UniProtKB/TrEMBL annotation:
The lineage of its organism: Eukaryota, Viridiplantae, Streptophyta, Embryophyta, Tracheophyta. One of its GO terms (molecular function) is DNA binding. GO terms for cellular component: nucleus. It comes from Lactuca saligna. It is found in: Nucleus. This is ALOG domain-containing protein. Residues 40-167 form the ALOG domain.
Amino acid sequence: MDLYPEVESCNNSDNSHHAISSLVTAAAASSPSTTSTPSRYENQKRRDWNTFGQYLKNHRPPLSLSRCSGAHVLEFLRYLDQFGKTKVHTPICPFYGHPDPPAPCPCPLRQAWGSLDALIGRLRAAYEENGWPPETNPFGARAVRLYLREVRDLQSKARGISYEKKKRKRGPTHEHHQLPSFSTFQALPLPPGDHI
C-alpha cells in the first residue's frame, strides 16, 4: 500500500533512495502489526504532503521534490491564498485594524497565518519522515520563515488581532511558595532571661 503516490512519481531517478525510503515507510505504516489508527495530525500531515506532491506534479514545468526550494514553497503558499477564508483588510479600508468590522468590505480573503504556520510545520515533518535530509528541507528555509513572520505581522495589523506567543506550560510544577516579606513578620517577645 502506497501512502504518497503523487510525490513518489515526481521524484527523479537520481533520488531513488528517497523513493525507496518512502516505500519502506509506507510499508511499515501499513503492516498488520500496527493496529492503532493514525491521529488527526498524522492524517492531516499525509493529506498536506499529498497536496504538495500534486502541486509539484501540476507545476509548469513539473518539478521534482529534489529540485524544490524555499521559493517553490512560497509559490505554493501564495497559490493557497485563493482558497483562504480570512478577511485581511488593506491599509485604505475603513475597517483596517478592527477585529470585528460592522459591515462588509471588498478586501481580499487569504489563508490565516495560523493555518499557514501549522501547514509548514506538518510539511516540514513529513519531508524528513520520508527520508529527506533536514539540511535540504525547503519548508525550513529562511525565506519561508521570513514570509510567515511577514504574514503574521500584516494580518495582526490588518485584523487588529495580536498574535502573542503562547506561554509554554511546564511539566509537573513544584509548588513555588513565595516567602513572606520582612514587613509581614511581627516581632515576637523573647522569653524572660534569654536577653543578651
